[in-house]
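pasting input
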Amino acid sequence: MGSKLVGCGSAVPKLMVSNDDLAKIVDTSDEWISVRTGIRNRRVLTGDETLSGLAMEAAKGALHMAQVDPDDVDLLIMCTSTPDDRFGCGARVQRDLGCKNAWAFDTTAACSGFVVGLITATRFIKGGGFQNILVIGADALSRCVDWTDRGTCILFGDAAGAVLVQACNGDEDGFLGFDVNSDGNGQKHLNAVAKEDGADALLNSNGAPLFPPKKSSFSFIQMNGKEVFRFAVRCVPQSIESALEEAGLSTSSIDWLLLHQANQRIIDAVASRLQIPGEKVISNLANYGNTSAASIPLALDEAVRSGKVKAGDTIAAAGFGAGLTWGSVIMRW
Ligand code: ACO
């Protein structure tokens, strides 16, 4: 059984925060940010906006494009590191969309999350019994950045993107090859770790101390930007080459290079290593910053809706980020 992409959608919060806005809260400038990263604006969740709400809007767009009824969705995979609920919010999105015949789960692989979710969806379909799977990449890293740290707060934005993956005959298979990796040795370079603060000991019925429970919260994002940069530029081209090899294709067969939108200099360096010309590279991070698991489906949706990506085009998509994790997928639109 093969799988193909039949719809995409995306959603972003209303509030746009420019580099000049950030220069009012930290010691930075539009010039520094745009030259080093390519980012000019980002969107940030405010008021009563929720990540689940964005995810639902994105998924609705994908279902509408695919002309698939919510009742016909079998599975919803919510790729996020920043759910509205610590236990995940895929089931809430499933309920809000009215996908009453589907089950849902959350998966976390930071900025590689969407690629991991997409590959997982194709494996479920290959195993049989699944016809329509919604894969949603949604993140609100604005929730976990230190807004006084100019080294990280300038990079991230909030968004959601979604695709509908549908079962098809093997000869129509739109997923041609993939590659996934992780290396926990690099976790020190990019993380938001659990902080376990001690609390007062619980007392037993006699008033004697029983044990002090741990109260946990998470630290802000900690990042060694230079190491993350080196990791991405070294590992992502290798990953794409492995996925291409599995697909039996070469870089010249790629119509579009669609990388996780972390930094324009990373995108340019990977394209240059793979000798893919700039006109085949999809980039929208100037408007949205690094939206983690949402960045690939958000950029895909814009490229499809603007008519840039056309039916039958071959796309090399790659995610990379905390874990460290990275992976690629070669797919046809
Ligand atoms: N504005 C002005 N100056 C700044 C800013 C800022 N926003 N941030 C840092 N600086 C200063 C530093 O303090 C330093 O000053 P100093 O020389 O006086 O010490 C100088 O600029 C250079 O800082 P570096 O950190 O060395 O700058 P670098 O060239 O490495 O650029 C950047 C930093 C843009 C973060 C880059 O390393 C990068 O993009 N790395 C990749 C990060 C990334 O993509 N992370 C996301 C991964 S995906 C995920 O999973 C979340």
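fyi Residues 225-247 form the longest helix (23 residues).
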